[in-house]
Automatic annotation (TrEMBL):
<keyword id="KW-0227">DNA damage</keyword>
<dbReference type="InterPro" id="IPR023546">
    <property type="entry name" value="MGMT"/>
</dbReference>
<dbReference type="InterPro" id="IPR036217">
    <property type="entry name" value="MethylDNA_cys_MeTrfase_DNAb"/>
</dbReference>
<dbReference type="Pfam" id="PF02870">
    <property type="entry name" value="Methyltransf_1N"/>
</dbReference>
<dbReference type="GO" id="GO:0005737">
    <property type="term" value="C:cytoplasm"/>
</dbReference>
<dbReference type="InterPro" id="IPR008332">
    <property type="entry name" value="MethylG_MeTrfase_N"/>
</dbReference>
<keyword id="KW-0489">Methyltransferase</keyword>
<dbReference type="GO" id="GO:0003908">
    <property type="term" value="F:methylated-DNA-[protein]-cysteine S-methyltransferase activity"/>
</dbReference>
<feature type="domain" description="Methylated-DNA-[protein]-cysteine S-methyltransferase DNA binding">
    <location>
        <begin position="85"/>
        <end position="166"/>
    </location>
</feature>
<feature type="active site" description="Nucleophile; methyl group acceptor">
    <location>
        <position position="137"/>
    </location>
</feature>
<comment type="similarity">
    <text>Belongs to the MGMT family.</text>
</comment>
<dbReference type="InterPro" id="IPR014048">
    <property type="entry name" value="MethylDNA_cys_MeTrfase_DNA-bd"/>
</dbReference>
<keyword id="KW-0808">Transferase</keyword>
<dbReference type="GO" id="GO:0006307">
    <property type="term" value="P:DNA alkylation repair"/>
</dbReference>
<comment type="function">
    <text>Involved in the cellular defense against the biological effects of O6-methylguanine (O6-MeG) and O4-methylthymine (O4-MeT) in DNA. Repairs the methylated nucleobase in DNA by stoichiometrically transferring the methyl group to a cysteine residue in the enzyme. This is a suicide reaction: the enzyme is irreversibly inactivated.</text>
</comment>
<keyword id="KW-0963">Cytoplasm</keyword>
<dbReference type="GO" id="GO:0032259">
    <property type="term" value="P:methylation"/>
</dbReference>
Length: 172
């Protein structure tokens, strides 16, 4: 493993979206390392020493715009997330969730071969997802069909699931 990764510069930009100003970070190669929404539980904020470089994120900005316009169903962006092997397995299961579908925490646990008792740990890994929207943790719901926690806020989860056709449009 490359031990210099922690000293590599972090690049960032913001992107306008229906969910608010999204904060994207990437490594020097342009590989996305996080996507946060305003007020996100555990979300990132710009730090001293980070380098603002909107050009590095042009493809991500275009794909996000297409997603929010209902024209893109699957992101094709390079990303990298650091986490425990357990979190990596949970995140890989999230990455395989198709647009417009939902699953439960228990189904994710089963998919990665974890025991039923690991549902809380699965929830913790999902809550620690550093790539909101891109890694669709908003597609995970409670076993009873309820809309459970979302680090970006339940209102944003509703908006994303409505965009994807899982929930009916809300009248204004």
């Amino acid at each position: 493993m490359n031990t210099s990764i922690s000293t590599a510069p972090i690049y960032w930009t913001t992107v306008h979206s229906p969910l608010g100003e999204l904060l994207l970070t990437a490594d020097p190669s342009g590989t996305l390392t996080s996507l946060s929404v305003p007020g996100q539980k555990g979300g990132r904020t710009v730090q001293d020493g980070w380098r603002h470089d909107p050009a590095l994120f042009r493809e991500a900005e275009e794909q996000l715009a297409a997603y929010f316009a209902g024209e893109l169903k699957e992101f094709r962006l390079r990303s990298r997330s650091e986490g425990t092997p357990f979190r990596q397995r949970v995140w890989a299961a999230l990455d395989s969730l198709p647009y417009g579908a939902t699953t439960t925490y228990g189904e994710i646990a089963a998919r990665i071969g974890a025991p039923r008792a690991a549902v809380r740990a699965v929830g913790g890994a999902i809550g620690a997802n550093p790539l909101l929207i891109l890694r669709p943790c908003h597609r995970v719901i409670g076993a009873d069909g309820s809309l459970t926690g979302y680090a970006g806020g339940l209102d944003r989860k509703v908006r994303l699931l409505t965009l994807e056709g899982v929930l009916p449009p809300v009248a204004d």
